[in-house]
Amino acid sequence: MTVTELPGSSTPAAGRPPLALPHQQRLAFQQYFLDTVRGEQGEWTVGRSKPVFRRFWQSHSYRSTIRRHLNRLAVEGHLDRHGVGTPRVFYTYRETEGQ
Fold this sequence. Notes:
Strand order of the largest sheet: 1-2
Helix content: 40-55%
Largest sheet: 2 strands, antiparallel
Number of domains: 1
Shape: globular
Strand content: 5-15%
Radius of gyration: 17 Å
Number of helices: 3
Order of helices and strands: HHHEE
């Protein structure tokens, strides 16, 4: 059996970031997402966050990926997590002194 390499099969699709995110892209997305959350306020669930992810990455994002990002932002102190132990977990922007 002969395996033929397809042209472009080893390169990411046009306009999509590589699978391993460079540090600068991760920081740019974090800033973009936090600016959006700060501007719109309210309760942020995975479903509400999904369009923001799609706008930035111009691609589909899995709910588990979004959940992981929200949790990381909460651990880093940018968001407050609510509803732990309930079916509905949501996040709110953590206001710091002087803002």
